[in-house]
TrEMBL record, chains A, B:
NCBIfam families: PRK02135.1. This is tRNA (pseudouridine(54)-N(1))-methyltransferase. Pfam families: Methyltrn_RNA_2. S-adenosyl-L-methionine binds at residue 125. Belongs to the methyltransferase superfamily. TrmY family. Keywords: Cytoplasm, Methyltransferase, S-adenosyl-L-methionine, Transferase, tRNA processing. Its main location: cytoplasm. It comes from Methanoculleus frigidifontis.
Length: 192, 192
């Protein structure tokens, strides 16, 4: 199983935002929608061996985590609005401390990054990390930030984690996921 | 200069589509919007050395070509709707045989793939091509298709072009552009 977690620092935690304004009213939810697209889509297929966690930290709070499970996913199309609609539906459900399914393969719970990091091992993708192409083996889980840098509090949580970099330039989260999955694909298929 | 050209087989050629339905009313314009995002966006920066041609072949016709020029671009945000709005504005202009600017860095003209291929050299990205990581040098221009395969007529036009592949799996056009630019970034910055 491959796991990605993306922190949405301003991302809405209620399903009241407009699908016509994902960057504004939904707190840059467009960034998270593109990350979902990169995590799952192949040409005419989905990556069934991926799970993607969106840690939403915006208004009205408290934090929620939305989970997409590739092996169960339905109703996801590649456009941003499609992922946005599934997130909006999940956030519209009454939500407790345990994951609850909203549509096939999409789950929601209350919970922040600290809780998620206690449950799964994630390496951190940042420009200062080791080049993924030179890693003897690649971690299966990766944590990324949205358009904002990690906060001081988050940095303290991830201080001891492995750090990897996908290239010399600083990329958007979705592009980083795409490059990383390409490296994993190559290793799995014996492309050196 | 790096050049990308993406053929939108069903993509609208008039600016009458709804930004709320880029996949449907605009003929999978969402695919082209994501390709524009991948071609230009870095974290907090734009790739100024890229030009991106969208060859639109859908209704009502005839074919039009929309050109995004990185060194001149303004008003482009990463979300699909932003690129869609710039394309819609370009397609709403009266349009002749020569490129005409609609917003800074965005141009439109009547014209099909055959004309574009006569003007610039494009390698073809497809799964049967040579691995980009093993190419002694990389071409600067690349042609990609949207969610449909190239037509027989297009295949005849590109039969003699160089073919490159970015990995073992078949990817969406935007993901292919992202992987390719990562390889170019690495070569330019001495990352082996």
């Amino acid at each position: 199983m491959k796991r990605f977690a993306i922190v949405g620092h301003l991302a809405a935690t209620a399903g009241t935002f407009s699908l016509n304004d994902l960057p504004g009213s939904a707190g840059r939810m467009d960034v998270l929608c593109r990350a979902v697209n990169s995590a799952f889509f192949l040409s005419h297929d989905l990556r069934r061996d991926v799970e993607c966690y969106l840690v939403l930290c915006g208004k009205p709070g408290p934090e929620k985590t939305v989970l997409f499970v590739g092996s169960e996913l339905r109703y996801l199309s590649p456009d941003e609005r499609s992922a946005g609609a599934l997130i909006k539906k999940a956030l519209s459900l009454p939500c407790g401390d345990e994951f609850r399914e909203s549509t096939p393969g999409v789950y929601v719970r209350r919970g922040d990054l600290a809780r998620l990091l206690a449950e799964h091992d994630f390496a951190v993708l940042d420009e200062e990390g080791d080049d993924i192409r030179h890693a003897a083996s690649l971690p299966t889980g990766y944590l990324l930030s949205d358009h904002h840098n990690f906060t001081e509090e988050e940095i303290a949580l991830i201080a001891e984690r492995q750090r990897h970099s996908v290239g010399p330039l600083s990329l958007h989260a979705d592009h980083t996921i795409t490059v990383l999955l390409n490296e994993m694909d190559r290793r799995e298929h014996g492309w050196s």
